[in-house]
Amino acid sequence: MSHLNVHGITHLRHVDLAVPDYATQRTFYRDTWGLTEVGTDGDLSFLAAEGSPEQYIVRLRKADEKRLDLIAFGATDPAAVDALAAKLGAEGVQLVGQPGTLQTAGGGYGFRFFDLDGRTIEISSGVETRKHRAVEEGEAIPVRISHAVMNSNDPTATKDWYEKYLGFKLSDTLWSAHMGEMMHFMRCNDWHHSLAIARGPHTSVHHVSFEMRGLDEYMRGTGRVMRAGIKKIWGPGRHLAGNNTFTYFLDPSGNTMEYTTELERLETDQWHPTLYDIADPQTQDQWGTADPMSEIIAKDSFNTPDRGLFVAPPV
């Protein structure tokens, strides 16, 4: 069965964040979160995961205002990039620029555009891979970036946009009797989700998730971050949709970051999305080790309204 995205989108590459507390954030992602700073360029820091062939999975930019700079996805080849850019342009999606050679580490060929809510999205192919290694037993550092979850005040409209324009497929939905559809999990390959859209009061980053080697490494990493005095929002636990483990923390600038492991890979394309009721404790946490989801917990991941909507980042 083919899991290939109809437009040749292959995977999540990196999430780029602008932060006022740049020095603090660099230290957090290197020393506490366990990423490797592979380079800096002026006010930019590029952070890789030891287990991932991606040049970097997080980019930090020193800025006066906190914002999401962009979310980058890979594509199969330059032809797929060109075809998608032409399609989006013809359908009235606002492009930031035409496809061309990327100026970032590893080069590549790609373009940027605004999604329905005004986030900058980049699609690229041919980015050089980085020399990486197998993360060892007991080594509690991220293996790769797993997924990005974004807040939207109309998550169903945003989900529909990603289906229509970018060919993402719906894996599952979380639902509440009071609030309706709360989160849509979307895939572009056989991972249960690379992107999810959550219901929030405004457009912002909900969380970015990092895959650990296994359960032991996930727990060791959770403990290390807790011991470092970083605010733990929720976890450890295991979700029902995606079957993945979770521990959520607030990074120093108020973005939520997650350690996860064992995210489900879909065996078949004939996948039927399930509507899970978030009132069921099993939906939130199959283990029962995490505190029940509450408005207090949820509020932490609402984040502050994104200041960068429909404004392309400077780099």
UniProtKB/TrEMBL annotation:
<keyword id="KW-0223">Dioxygenase</keyword>
<keyword id="KW-0560">Oxidoreductase</keyword>
<feature type="domain" description="VOC">
    <location>
        <begin position="11"/>
        <end position="126"/>
    </location>
</feature>
<dbReference type="InterPro" id="IPR029068">
    <property type="entry name" value="Glyas_Bleomycin-R_OHBP_Dase"/>
</dbReference>
<dbReference type="InterPro" id="IPR004360">
    <property type="entry name" value="Glyas_Fos-R_dOase_dom"/>
</dbReference>
<dbReference type="Pfam" id="PF00903">
    <property type="entry name" value="Glyoxalase"/>
</dbReference>
<dbReference type="GO" id="GO:0051213">
    <property type="term" value="F:dioxygenase activity"/>
</dbReference>
<dbReference type="InterPro" id="IPR050383">
    <property type="entry name" value="GlyoxalaseI/FosfomycinResist"/>
</dbReference>
<feature type="domain" description="VOC">
    <location>
        <begin position="144"/>
        <end position="262"/>
    </location>
</feature>
<dbReference type="InterPro" id="IPR037523">
    <property type="entry name" value="VOC_core"/>
</dbReference>
<protein>
    <submittedName>
        <fullName>Catechol-2,3-dioxygenase</fullName>
    </submittedName>
</protein>
